[in-house]
Amino acid sequence: MKKVISVVGARPNYMKVAPIHRSFQKYKDRIKHLICHTGQHYDVNMSKIFFEELELPQPEFYLGVGSGSHAEQTAKIMIEFEKVLLNEKPDLVIVVGDVNSTIACSLVAVKLGIKVAHVEAGLRSFDRTMPEEINRLLTDQIADYLFVTEKSGLENLKNEGIADEKIFFVGNTMIDSLVYYLPKIEMSQILNELNLKEKEYVVITLHRPSNVDNPENLIKIFEQFRKIADKYKIVFPIHPRTKKTIQSTNFHYNHINFLLIDPVGYISFIKLVKNSIAVITDSGGIQEETTFLKIPCLTLRENTERPITVELGTNKLIGTKYDKIAEEFFNYLNSPKYDSNIPPLWDGKAAERITAKLVELLN
Ligand code: UD1
Ligand code: UDP
Q: Which domain holds residue 72?
C-alpha cells in the first residue's frame, strides 16, 4: 500500500484537490490518500464550507498556520508540515496551484527525499512582482511530476529546462469540479436569495495585492464599479484581504445596485457566475471557470498566467488603468461577441488521468 498526502491551504486549492481525492477512491486497495490542510485560509467561508460542498473528508492533518507575512506563513507551514512527513513517511506529496502552501510543502517534501507532484504546473505570468509567480517557478523546479492544464505550460516548462519525462498534459482539475457539480449548481437558490435575475447583474471579485492593498487604488476601482452599478446590479463577494483595505478608508460604496457580500461557497458562487451578464475579476481560477461557462470575463490585470483563456475563451485583460474600468466594461459588452472554445482536455477527467499516471508511477 502506497501513501499519498495532498495539500490544501487556500480557497483555490479545494476544488482542485476534491476530484483527485474522489479519483483515488478507485485505487483504495493500492493507495491510501490523505489530506493535509495548512490553515492558510481559515474563515468558515474560505475553508470549511468548501469541505462540505465539495464532499472532501475532514483533513487528517490540520496545521493551523493562519495569516502572516510571506516569510512567517511559509516558515510556519514548513515547520509543521515537516513533522507530519516525518511521522507519516508518505510515498508522494501532491501540491496544487501557486499559493504559499504549495511551495512551502513542496520544499519540505523534496528535502526529505519524498516525491512531489505539482498539479497546475507550468503556468507563468512572467511577472515576478506576483508572489504566486515565485511560488510557481520554484515549485516546478523541484517537483518530480508536473501535471499541466494548458499548452502554454508545456512550452514554459520546456523553456525552463524541465525534462520531458516529468511533464504530463492532463487538463484542469478545477474544471473537473465544475463539470461534476453542475447539477448541484443548477439547484442553488442563491439568485432568489439575493433577488437577482438571470443576465441582469455583474459578478465582481478582487484580491490581488497589486489591486487591493493600496487604499487609494482600491477607492478608484470602487468608484468605477459605482459607474457600472448605475446601469447593472453588481454582486461582489468580497475577499477578506480586500475587505480589510476598504474598511481602513472612509469610502462609501453604498449604491442601490451594489451588493457587497461575504465570500460565498463554491456552489453559490458558480451559480452566480453562470447566470451573470459578465464577470470582473483579478482571480486566476475564475478566468478559467468563465472560459468554460462562456461568460464574458474582464480581468483587471496587465498579464495572465492562463493565456489560453484569452486565446480561446471569453477572457479579456483590461489592465490596471483604473479610471478606464467602466469604459472598458461597457465597450466589451457592446462589442460583437466572438465564438469561444473550451481548451483541450478541460473535459472533467483531468483527475482520472492524474491518478492513473500516479498509480503507475508509484507501483
Ligand atoms: C492567497 C494566495 C493567492 C490566492 C488567494 C486566493 C499566497 C501568497 N496568496 O492570497 O495566490 O489567489 O489566496 O484567495 O499564497 N484572511 C482572513 N481570513 C482568511 C484568510 C485570509 O481574514 O481565512 C485575511 C488576513 O487578513 C490575511 C489576508 O486575508 O492577512 C491575506 O491572506 P493570505 O492567505 O496571506 O493571502 P491571500 O490574499 O488570501
Ligand atoms: N470562489 C468561491 N466563492 C467566492 C469567490 C470565489 O467559491 O466568493 C471560487 C471560484 O469559483 C474559484 C476559486 O474560488 O473556484 C478561485 O479562488 P480565488 O479567486 O480566491 O483564487 P485564485 O484562483 O485567484 O488563486
A: 2-172+346-362
Q: pTM value?
A: 0.98
pLDDT digits (tens, 9 = 90+) for 61-75: 999 999 999 999 999
In a domain, 339, yes or no: no
Q: How far apart are CA 91 and CA 188, in angstroms?
A: 39
- Rounded to the nearest 10 degrees, how much is the dihedral formed by the CA atoms of 267, 310, 344, 124? -90
Mutate to test the pocket of ligand 1, among 7, 13, 37, 40 (most ligand atoms within 8 A of CB): 40
Say if 177 falls within a structural domain. Answer: no
Q: Does ligand 1 lie within 6 Å of residue 67's CB atom?
A: yes
Cell numbers linked to 115: 516525491
Say if residue 191 is in the same domain as residue 306.
Answer: yes
Q: Residue 339: what are its φ and ψ, rounded to 5°? A: -70, 135
CA distances (Å), origin 166, targets 5, 103, 219? 19, 18, 45
Catalytic residue positions, numbered: 207
Query: Are both 127 and 228 inside the same structural domain?
Result: no
